[in-house]
Amino acid sequence: MPSDRLEGHRCGPLKGVAEVPGDKSISHRALIFGGLAAGTTNIEGLLEGDDVLHTAAAVRAFGAEVERLGDGHWRVTSRSEWRSPDAPIDCGNSGTGARLLMGAAAGWPIRATFTGDASLSGRPMERVLGPLRQMGARTEGSTLPVTVHGGTLTGISYDNVKSSAQVKTAILLAGLRAVGDVEVHEALPSRDHTENMLRAFGVDVEQEGGTVRLGRHRDMVATDVIVPRDPSSAAFPIVAALLVPGSEVELPNILINPLRTGLITTLKEMGGDIEYRNVRSSGGEQVADIIVRASTLTGVEVPAERAPSMIDEYPILAIAAACAGGTTIMTGLEELRVKESDRLSAVAEGLGACGVEYQEGKDSLTVRGAGGPPAGGGEVAAHHDHRIAMSFLVLGLVAERPVAVDSAGMIATSFPTFLPLMRNLGADIR
Ligand SMILES: O=C(O)C1=C[C@@H](OP(=O)(O)O)[C@@H](O)[C@H](O)C1
Ligand SMILES: C=C(OP(=O)(O)O)C(=O)O
User: Which residues form the Enolpyruvate transferase domain (predicted)?
Assistant: First the structure.
């Protein structure tokens, strides 16, 4: 098997336009919702990363017609009912795909077994299966392989203590076919793409404080979806441009939903020169063109309540923190331990390998910034985690010595064009 080890090397200013791919969360939802809704759903700007391609295959296995018409242009036509798939549904590396599909499947009188890769097979599924059982589904297994036997479900009032959008979405999708009230409470709001998109697909969704409730009208009607560009992917060129002296990069058409932009808020507090231009509405979401210029950063304390709005961005924030002056304190990070890898320890280990001072707590990370380029020179284990790999390749662009990442292949799960995009800006990744 060819090695997918890569190194990031110190480089000159990053310049140009970074067209990052479509938002991963919205892409999964567009396919699944299209598979549930009566009629034909056209999707523009779909992320064609491995995670989403697994979801496309899954929706097809449940009986919908799913066609790729061109670059990012897909068409989903549902049958009136979901059917039991002939074979296990392989969700690959994707927690979102697995958990959302379990919820969607539970509402039908069918049986489906879900599998995934080694990383996904170690991730907790009980957080979704518990509420689905409460609604009347039968389940086998608490980690993959998991089998869901769906059927006639009843309502639920569920306290989503982890503020997980995947859990909230699984319950709402199951709830579409449940009899009775379906509501999910959150003390800290998680991303609201499901609510926004369900409304666009004709479903009554009410929001009252921290409670989301399905209304009476729960039949989905197909609608077209325009997928904005992914702020979680944009995070890598944004931080790279802030850190590499002399850089200026434009990122057009990025989703700026406030429930996704905790990283941008934090980077601005650190002194990052990040500007939104042409803020506008597109496909029911706010988007903007983002301009980033190299900046001198200072460490900050990131409030724990901000975590849901930047949950996937802590690895790349830790890289910004490593180059900032002073200390950055991140708390409320317990969910990082159950992502594609234990991201808290993977980041800590990588920082250590690159000569960065840090302290890892049970659910916190403190990084003492070098106030300039860290030593680098580390051989970093990515733990087959796309966001760990991309984060440390970005560190290599500024560190005194190159930073190597042992396996970068998983980057294709969320950001298949990462390498050409970064190289096109001037990044030295080889
Ligand atoms: O709903 C979604 O699309 C996602 C929710 C988050 O997970 P949790 O729901 O586990 O917080 C996030 O980490 C993931 O990348 C995508
Ligand atoms: C956590 C992530 O995704 P998922 O949960 O879908 O695997 C991610 O993309 O960082």
Answer: 12-419
By most ligand atoms within 8 Å of CB, the mutation choice from 26, 91, 166 for ligand 1 is 166
Q: Are residues 283 and 371 in the same domain?
A: yes
Please tell me if the CB atom of residue 25 comes closer than 6 angstroms to any atom of ligand 2: no
Query: Within 6 Å (CB) of ligand 1, which residues are found?
Result: 25, 96, 164-166, 169, 191, 311-312, 335
Alpha carbon distance 201, 33 (integer Å): 8
Find the domain containing 301 and state its range. Answer: 6-22+229-429
Q: What residues have CB less than 8 Å from 208, skipping those under 6 apart?
A: none
Q: Which residue out of 117, 167, 339 has the highest number of ligand 2 atoms within 8 Å of its CB and is therefore the one to mutate?
A: 339
* Residues marked as catalytic: 312
- Asked if residue 78 and residue 15 are part of one domain, the reply reads no
ipTM (interface predicted TM): 0.99
How far, in Å, CA of 399 to CA of 403, rounded? Answer: 7
